[in-house]
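Quick log. Single chain, no ligands specified.
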Amino acid sequence: MTRSIDYGTLMHRAMRGLIQEVLADVAKHGLPGQHHFFITFDTMHPDVEMADWLSDRYPEEMTVVMQHWFDNLDVTDDGFSVTLNFGDNPEPLYIPYDSIRTFVDPSVEFGLRFETQEDDDRGDDGVEPTPVETTETESAPKSGDAEIVSLDKFRK
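-> predicted structure:
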């Protein structure tokens, strides 16, 4: 059996760790300057916790904004919980890192996008491999036109 380095999984883990580190700093010190986050996540992820009315309204994915008002930010190794305001209704959310699809801080033109790709090939044992998650990074140039570079085009 040929062994190889799974760079996609390693990048996935590193970028989720980056999000964890950023949020832990914000939980401890608050948002610095003009920083704010748009976080899009999979509302169908089994570990996401949110009010029923929110999951009914956003049955597949939801984007939350952490900027002017958020409360009770608690960052763990697996995800984070935060209370956000939805039309003057404070609602607690729990968002696991594995459910995050995009994490963007527009104040510094930084963004991450996580995509899952199904692999149709079966392993030697006949078992289907689990979906491989790859990370794309995006950074909008000053002109305002963003170019997204996929790491897949560098794989052989």
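The CA atoms of residues 136 and 149 lie 6 Å apart.
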